[in-house]
Amino acid sequence: MESEVFSANSGAIVVAHELKAPLSLMRQLALSLELEDSKEGVNEIGRQIAATSERALRQVEDMIKVARLDDALFEMEPVNPRVVCDDVVNELWKLFQFNRRELKVYYRNRRRLVIANPQLLYSVLYNFCINAMNYGGEDLPSEIIISDKSTDRIRVEVRDYGPAIPTKIWREIRKGLVGRPMDISMRPGSSGLGLYIAAKFTNYMNGKFGLVRHRDGTSFYVELNVSGQLSLV
User: Fold this and answer.
1) Strand pairing report for 142-148 and 208-214
2) Which of 75, 164, 170, 189 is least surrounded, with the fewest CB atoms within 10 Å of its CB?
3) CB 168 within 8 A of CB 192
4) What is the largest CA-CA distance in the chain?
5) Contact 78, 113 (CB under 8 A)
6) What is the distance between the alpha carbons of residues 59 and 24, in angstroms, rounded to a whole number?
7) By the 8 A CB rule, do 159 and 145 touch?
8) The model's pTM
9) How many CB atoms lie within 10 A of CB 170?
């Protein structure tokens, strides 16, 4: 019982910290407006405030979805993961560009449709990409790869070049034990809340959430069941 309370408290602390961070940033940006003289500078700060608030709102909305997963509001249907991936990239490319990051996409899957919910899959990929953006550079682009894992599964993975994932967290994810938002101390820019959301949504879609540890980074992935419906896209 004591360990369960500790786990719940730890998760709550992670959530509070991650939601506090964008609020603190927006406050700092708002105060900097008073010191900015140029119209271009004011506009740029405004864009940063808007982008930060949008990401914070998305986290809140995702947490609401997590709380309502048991209400059966999110129907499963044949989904083309390439289309979802394109939508995520279209939303994030300006953010990557602003942070001097690059995001490359590789479509290697022959089977086109998976059984998923498009909203939940979008959130999974969005959270993976936001995490990856913190670990890379002009010479180390983040990568999205969609491939056939087997005859009945498609894998969508996002590769970054950040510090190694601690062994304890790696084992928890590999065993499907992500039951709370995790604090990943060795990757300070990584969102433990985002990974928790991705794990919950993947489980709802009857998929597999996991990661691969590389010598120079990590690939987070989701594997989903292939749909038997033919794709016309």
Assistant:
1) unpaired
2) 75
3) no
4) 60
5) yes
6) 15
7) yes
8) 0.80
9) 16
Q: Over its length of 233 residues, how does the chain's per-residue pLDDT go in tens digits?
A: 433 333 444 445 556 666 666 677 777 877 787 777 787 777 777 777 777 777 778 888 888 898 888 887 899 999 999 999 999 999 888 888 877 888 899 999 998 899 999 999 999 999 899 888 877 656 678 899 999 998 899 999 999 887 777 777 777 776 665 655 565 555 555 557 778 888 889 999 999 998 888 888 889 999 999 998 655 44
User: Could you tell me which residues are beta bridge partners of residue 181?
Assistant: none
- For the sheet containing 153-160, what is the strand order? 103-107, 142-148, 153-160, 217-225, 208-214
Q: DSSP 3-state assignment of 152? A: coil
Distance CA 214, CA 217 (A): 5
Q: Where are the alpha helices (DSSP H) in 140-185?
A: 167-174
3-state secondary structure of 14: helix
Per DSSP, 174 falls in state H
Given phi > 0 = left and psi -120 to 50 = alpha, else beta, which region is 100?
left
Q: What are phi and psi of 193, to 5 degrees?
A: -65, -40
